[in-house]
Amino acid sequence: MSDSAPTTADTRRLARDARDRVRFEEEALELSDQVYRVARRFVGSREEAEDLVQQTYERAFRSWRQFTPGTNLRAWLLRILTNLNIDRGRRQQRAPQTTSIDSEAGDYFLYDKLASQMPDENPDEERVLERLSQDSIVDALADVPHDFRDVIVLVDIGEFSYADAAQILDIPMGTVMSRLHRGRRILKKNLADTAVA
Amino acid sequence: MTPIDDPCEECEEMMQPFLDGSLSEAEVARAQKHLETCSWCAKRYRFEEQLRHYVRVAVSEPMSPELKAKLAALRTPL
Q1: Contact A173, A166 (CB under 8 A)
Q2: Model ipTM over 0.95
């Protein structure tokens, strides 16, 4: 059959294939803002994030047949992005000495620290929050060691489920939960430090 | 979760899983019961909830139109 003229069935298959591909590309592009938002906090600079997103889409469009329709395309794209990020070796080194965070501070720590610098007793949450600038939040997140930050970025910024985050980072779901829990505490500790400085 | 003697300490321990929606029904009920009577903890819960929202907004940087155009150009030509 291979050297004969294409049959009607072949033509139909090709047309369907082209249509599936166009649909895949459209759907992937619709998610690009969300993919970029996560990428931007995975890496240190806008340029790196843009490179990473571009490479992700190049690879995704090349290997689109490997995507199973009906599954989570956003998670699939992020999995590619995470692998590329690891391949590029651009991940920050793990910062040492983060093991004592849990015992040092509980989850009320940041509120208590910020409130202690205000004149009123037990001030309202909105006023306490005003003490944190946007820049201080960006810096505090960037200073969280990447193992913890990646999970925060996926779950709290990208709004992925624990299961999706586990799949994207190729770690067990229990690890996602424990890193998220500790990562948020590290983030709050960093925020308390910047606010005091 | 194992109950802790100090109700505020227990409430603090439950805050993250409470806001994540990953507590059991019984644990949620226990936290809610405490929050109804303890404005000290309730304020800290509201702070955490708003903080999460604020962090998400603060670190969200829009993609540049240039990158958007580059990605669109990667599509297979029709």
Answers
A1: yes
A2: no
